[in-house]
Amino acid sequence: MRVAWKHIGLLAMLACVLALFPTIVQAASEPSIVVDGKKLELSGGASVEIKDGNVIIPIRVVTENLGFRVNWDGATRGIDITDGSRLIRLTIDSKTAYVDGEEKQLLAAPALKKGVTSVPLRFVSEQMGMNVQWHAATKTAIVNRPAPPVVETPSITVDEIRVDGRQLTIAVGGKVEPKVFTMSGPDRIVIDLPGTSLSRTLEERAGQKGVVTTASAPEIANVRYALFSSNPSTVRIVMDLSSATPYQVSRGAGNEVIVELLGGTTPDPATGGETAPGIPGTDGTLPGTDGTIPGTDGSTVTPGNGSETPPVIDPEFPPVSSGKKLIVLDAGHGGKDPGTIGYSKTQEKGFNLSVVLKVQALLQNDPNMEVVLTRDNDTFIELGERGPIANRLGADAFISVHANSVENSPSASGTESYYYEEASKAFTQVMHKHLLKATGFKDRGVKKASFKVLRDTQMISVLLESGFISNPTEEAALFTEEMQQKIAQAIVDALYEYFGFSQP
Ligand SMILES: [Zn+2]
Hints:
about 500 residues; alpha+beta; Copper Amine Oxidase, Chain A, domain 1; Immunoglobulin-like; Aminopeptidase; 3 domains; six-stranded mixed beta sheet; five-stranded antiparallel beta sheet; about 20% helix; about 30% strand; flat; binds zinc ion
């Protein structure tokens, strides 16, 4: 059983008491800790120890003095420490730690002695972004918190997107420099607005992406928009065209960005419809003597560059007109990162990949869903790249498949499912219900945790820990075709239930 989250921050009173202590550290026989220039007074006889050159502190110091939340799992002897955004997972007597799911090695293992859990100060502090220095002469560990990061929020909102005849008008809350380029197969004009986000109204109307349907011009099939990237924050608007059509970009009243289709369609007899050279938007040749477009208020807008290299994964978000939900399946780890290691030395990465490939096979030709995998073979993908893949695609759901393990604890067992944003909780509960039924393992429940892939994704997301490969029974089961097929089917069933599709 897990104890409840405990959060005891630095109390104002404690801060006052600490302020009375001199900030210049005197030589002392007992090791001490100074946080942000203030020496910590450890309560109730708690002491700081030096073990193999590492400063070991009681876990109570982590909660009471450093202000992190600590969660203890007696079954796995696991210690989860979080600052609200990062998750450090430690295990008693194990030198392996996980920071946001990434494996790290400790110099000293956490210990449990006489009911007191202690952890290495430097590792915990540094992983939380603090700076730690050790002064041997005074036996003092000096911990400094970094200044709070400046979060850059885009100040310009995209307020309205409308189509009048052959003209697309984008109302924005400030001056933006649009990047406009064309893509073919099917033909479309892509407008990126760097430094912008969707206005609350647009977001409430359609979430992170939407469609402006139009019947006003035969050349314009659809206008779609989405928050394309969060770093830098960029709204992307795509005009789906019935055929390649020249266009011009100008600036309207206020800071409106106007994209107007010009002339008629210009099929090239030689290429059967390919855009001919010299057409605005395809090679940068645009009206105006200096290559810029005069705006109605006399300002100019830099022309789009048709030769812009599209991103590697997918040039743009997939057409929503297909009506299918886009599911991104993420097999954890891969390549040089084996993930956790099983009781009989199996590797987690192989299990994860097998499961997502089976889900993909089940959803091939599915009338309701399309699937994209972050990896479909044994390659290494950075943790930080996985969420953005789904974001760039404008995915509807993100599922990260993993398996658990605890060193030297073969009895730890069970299935657990993680979410981060509240919006993903219901989805995770449905996933967990089906997954648990498939594995038949112990129910470890639906949990909230700050895993990086869950934090990074802008759509509903879940991280599944089907079972413990450090447990010989669960390991044997998880590596059978039969169990992997059951788990894959459970994921599909959960998607059907959550999205309300009727079973084929
Ligand atoms: Zn994993």
